[in-house]
Write a structure and sequence with these properties.
The complex is a heterodimer of chains A (501) and B (476). Chain A is mainly α. Chain A contains 21 helices and 2 strands. The longest helix of chain A has 33 residues. Chain A is globular. Chain B contains 21 helices and 2 strands.
């Protein structure tokens, strides 16, 4: 399957440009083309998974072509156990986004689909790139379609939200670029493998770690640089929120695993308490913040911040485990949990945003107070919503349980208190999610507008059904997912604890 | 004196002949055959470029005409870029000039003369040639700024430009005279060999005046005051010219004069340029944030970009100069397109130079909006556009030469800069048009050129290798 990754990147981008050329006049054809392209990408992601050798931590499906000889930068692609599932997630989540916009987007639909498809290709590029410069190229380029999506199809405060989103991410990224260039000057090329192998002093590692932390913490987002997220989520159109929550936030977590830990292991060990503290604040404090939200999207956005706190906690608790127990037992479990949590949160938060989108398309309100008793008029929708809400609280049997459970167990090995604080989120998560469901879905019908709601149409049922199946599958049978990650995580843990000094 | 002696100067010879011929033809063609001069000018530029490619190529550095003139691959590349950029600039400008009744032969003759000045600067190998080039470029441009003679704003801008420009020329001459007096040579090559070891205070004083003049020409803070006024006051087609090809000349000026001729004073001028670059980056980016006039905003954006070019020189290595050259070419390419958009968005009696005129442009004219978006993202330094590589290259050479704080400052300032570029995109794409504005004109060849301009920004951004290599090769 040579060139599979290239096809995965450029097929959606090419289709996006084609749709742009077709224009709004021929949008009927454009829509089908968008659906066909996103389905084809998903179909191509299947051989990526099936031909992936789960026994190896090496980069698979490698591609290498000269790109910029002067910088010794290559068009180098490849996947391992942490990037491959994320590419599959990206391919999977773009399909519902295309379908969800089918009849809803009236304004400039050609540009809408083009933006999402181009962004899909660029996001796959981020996960597939094994050259740091190529990675950065995709990482930044991806901002452009998202900037336009929020700015053009967003809500009333979209301009503020999208510029804030762009500038926050841009600010974080330029310092990462400065760090990458510094390492390039020392290492002589941009390949991620040689950056990981580059010996660095503790002081250099600290600076590099901080530059990466700035870039990835904004993206994850971690407290206190999370404030762009609620704004962006609330203003973005449904599809934008889904991609933002499901994929873009994962890039921050991916960055920690791919860059911070292997490149600056000693600085990571030294500063792990900082990251753990920020993660626990995200988990607990943001959980309380989510509790008081009046806006459904904002609530889910804050819940994303809290759940992504598990990812960073799981990634960095490794060092605490080694420090407290002196052994690596359980260290991999934290990272396993972080990865599963990323996949699972991608599915669940995407699904929840789609649920909010379903309601918003009907009543044009995201305020919790405008709803109540939806179950009486939309029983099918209500069952999906309740399922995803329960998954969000981490109910066993859903994907939400696996990741959080693994991270909490791993934190127990490090310290009782980490585990306790992390476990608080299970309560808080249950509180804000179930209270949301109680106020929106259950109870008597509160207003005539709710009484007039129509249940899901076929399109929406397919989308939510597919997501529900995925959530349950990962929840009941996470073994295949864990299996493909295992060797890579094992390798990553050994990189993360090996000193470079 | 043989053909071989003159061949490397074919670009200048061709331009001089063209200037004389076009002046005559225009005088006799009269009012009725107005379109003749623009066409002839474009032909002359194409012919000049072709002759340069055919006869003007040199494989190594040649010093000609008693050491006054230097021909090297760098000069060939810069001159070809000059031909190309000026031709495109004139193509963009024609309809604009027609609509304002200032489509006169003199406009084209002055532009060609200024281009000749650019070429003289590019090939200067003596302080005298440098000065000749600087004046040959500046004088026609003063006249061009005042070309719309009924416009008070243009006259004021020209006056300001002329007076401040004269002061800068004075500074340049004074500095040169000091250097000449202390070293006894005008030749840049000899100068480089005579200036080494500890420097006398006189040399440093002379150098200071020269740096001030260079900073003035580039528009580096605190010698930038003329730039926003001239950009705003001049007819947009003239702004387009000033903002593009002369930057190449000033890059060459800095390279030949400071980096090559006065190489022995590198530690001194490098310090001065560092201070200039820091001020330029900060003032350019911050002041651009509050502009309401697009031409004025682009003027401050020019200043900010000049800061990056100067940073390339601060690095003080051949790689640094190559980075500065790459940045200059990329900047000119993008500026060409941005001012081209302003020209095309304007129409008779309507100058599209306020930011508000761009509200909802995507509705009126999707192509212009798309081109402008590409150019703005490029200037902001976002991949996949070429502006990203220009900034990256500057960061790289700064790291390599150990200028940590400049990297961080430049990185932070490019984030500040991103805001006002995003604001333009916001106006064009996120806002609805405010009231009825004249529909943009349809001129297929010009629009095609503009589209190609934007496409070049994208293609050079996805495959930056060849141009980067070219710049590095001709500098080394």
């Amino acid at each position: 399957m040579h060139g599979l990754l290239s096809i995965l990147i450029w097929l959606p981008i090419g289709a996006g440009i084609l749709i742009l050329l077709l224009g709004d006049a021929r949008i009927a054809a454009g829509r089908w083309l968008a659906l066909a392209a996103s389905l084809a990408t998903l179909a191509l992601a299947v051989p990526l998974w099936t031909h992936f050798d789960p026994g190896s931590a090496a980069l698979q499906f490698p591609e290498l072509a000269p790109w910029i000889p002067r910088f010794k930068a290559f068009y180098a692609l490849g996947v391992d156990g942490i990037s491959m599932p994320l590419i599959a997630l990206t391919a999977f989540m773009t399909v519902p986004v295309v379908i969800a916009g089918w009849s809803v987007i009236d304004m400039r639909p050609a540009q809408y689909y083009a933006a999402f498809l181009v962004m899909e290709g660029l996001m796959i590029g981020v996960f597939a790139a094994t050259d740091a410069l190529l990675f950065y190229f995709f990482w930044e380029a991806m901002l452009i379609p998202m900037f336009l999506i929020i700015g053009i199809w967003g809500g009333p405060r979209r301009v503020y939200a999208t510029i804030k989103f762009f500038l926050y991410t841009f600010l974080g990224s330029v310092f990462m670029l400065a760090a990458l260039i510094y390492m390039y000057v020392k290492a002589g090329d941009y390949s991620i493998a040689s950056l990981q192998a580059l010996p660095l002093t503790l002081i250099e590692q600290r600076w590099i770690f901080c530059a990466f932390l700035l870039a990835f913490a904004v993206k994850v987002p971690m407290w206190p640089v999370h404030t762009w997220l609620p704004d962006a989520h609330v203003e973005a159109p449904t599809g934008g929120s889904v991609i933002l929550a499901a994929i873009m936030l994962k890039m921050g977590g991916y960055g920690f695993l791919r860059f911070s830990l292997p490149i600056a292991p000693d600085a990571s060990r030294e500063l792990d308490l900082l990251v753990i503290a920020l993660s626990l604040i995200a988990v607990v404090y943001i959980g309380f913040v989510a509790l008081v939200q009046q806006d459904m999207k904002k609530l889910i956005a804050y819940s994303s911040v809290a759940h992504m706190g598990f990812v960073t906690l799981g990634a960095f608790v490794v060092y605490e485990i080694v420090r407290h127990t002196g052994s690596l037992v359980g260290a991999g479990m934290g990272m396993d949990g972080a990865m599963v949590q990323m996949i699972s949160h991608g599915l669940i938060s995407g699904a929840l945003f789609l649920c909010v989108g379903v309601l918003y398309d009907r009543l044009h309100s995201r305020q919790i107070a405008d709803y109540g008793g939806v179950v009486n008029t939309m029983p099918v929708f209500a069952s999906f919503m309740v399922l995803f809400a329960l998954a969000n609280t981490g109910l066993p049997g859903t994907s939400g349980f696996v990741g959080e459970f693994l991270v909490i167990i791993a934190s127990f090995r490090a310290s009782f208190w980490y585990a306790l604080l992390a476990a608080v989120t299970l309560m808080l998560g249950a509180a804000y999610t179930l209270w949301l469901v109680k106020r929106v879905v259950f109870g008597p019908v509160t207003s005539p507008r709710v009484a007039g709601l129509k249940d899901l149409n076929g399109r929406e049922t397919v989308v939510l059904g597919a997501l529900a199946a995925a959530v349950l599958l990962v929840g009941v049978w996470p073994a295949p997912l864990l299996k493909v990650m295992q060797p890579t995580i094992h390798h990553l843990v050994s990189q993360a604890v090996a000193s470079k000094l | 004196m043989s053909f071989a002696t003159f061949a490397p100067a074919v670009a200048e010879i061709c331009l001089t002949v063209a200037v004389c011929l076009i002046l005559l033809v225009d005088a006799f063609a009269g009012e009725r055959r107005r379109r003749l001069t623009p066409t002839l000018t474009l032909l002359a530029l194409v012919l000049g470029a072709a002759l340069t490619v055919r006869y003007g190529q040199v494989s190594e550095r040649l010093v000609l005409f008693d050491g006054m003139y230097v021909a090297d691959p760098l000069a060939v590349v810069l001159k070809l870029a000059g031909f190309l950029f000026v031709a495109v600039a004139l193509l963009y400008s024609r309809a604009y000039l027609e609509n304002r009744n200032i489509l006169r032969g003199e406009y084209y003759v002055l532009t060609l003369t200024a281009l000749l000045g650019i070429f003289v600067l590019i090939s200067a190998n003596s302080l005298l040639t440098v000065y000749l080039g600087v004046e040959l470029l500046a004088l026609p441009v003063y006249a061009l700024v005042a070309f719309d003679r009924d416009s008070g704003v243009s006259a004021e801008a020209a006056m300001k430009y002329f007076v401040l420009g004269a002061i800068a020329s004075g500074a340049l001459l004074y500095g040169m005279s000091l250097i000449y007096g202390l070293t006894g040579t005008l030749d840049l090559g000899t100068l480089a060999t005579r200036l080494h070891g500890p420097l006398s205070a006189g040399v440093v004083l002379g150098l200071t005046f020269i740096v001030v003049a260079v900073a003035f020409k580039f528009g580096a803070v605190p010698f930038h005051m003329w730039l926003p006024d001239v950009y705003e006051g001049a007819p947009t087609s003239v702004t387009l010219f000033i903002g593009t090809a002369p930057k190449i000349a000033y890059f060459a000026l800095t390279l030949r004069l400071l980096a090559q001729g006065l190489a022995g004073t590198e530690p001194q001028w490098s310090q001065m340029l560092t201070a200039l670059a820091v001020l330029t980056l900060v003032v350019g980016n911050v002041v651009a944030l509050v502009q309401t006039n697009l031409k004025r905003m682009l003027a401050y954006s020019t200043i900010a970009n000049v800061g990056f070019i100067v940073l390339g020189f601060v690095a003080g290595t051949p790689d640094g100069y190559a980075a500065a050259m790459y940045y200059t070419l990329v900047y000119v390419l993008v500026a060409l397109g941005s001012f081209g958009v302003i020209l095309l968005a304007s129409s008779r009696g309507f100058e599209a130079d306020r930011l508000d005129d761009y509200r909802g442009l995507h509705r009126r004219d999707p192509l212009l909006a798309l081109v402008m978006m590409v150019l703005m993202f490029s200037t902001a330094g976002v991949p996949p556009f070429v502006g990203f590589w220009a900034k990256l290259r500057i960061f790289q050479v700064l790291w390599e030469s150990g200028h940590l704080w400049l990297v961080l400052l430049a990185a932070a300032m490019s984030v500040v800069g991103a805001y006002y570029y995003l604001r333009i995109i916001k106006l064009m794409y996120f806002d609805e048009p405010a009231g009825e504005l004249p529909a943009a004109r349809r001129e297929l060849p010009v629009r095609l050129a503009l589209g190609l301009n934007a496409a070049a920004v994208l293609v050079l951004g996805v495959l930056p290798g060849p141009l980067l290599d070219l710049c590095a090769r001709v500098i080394h």
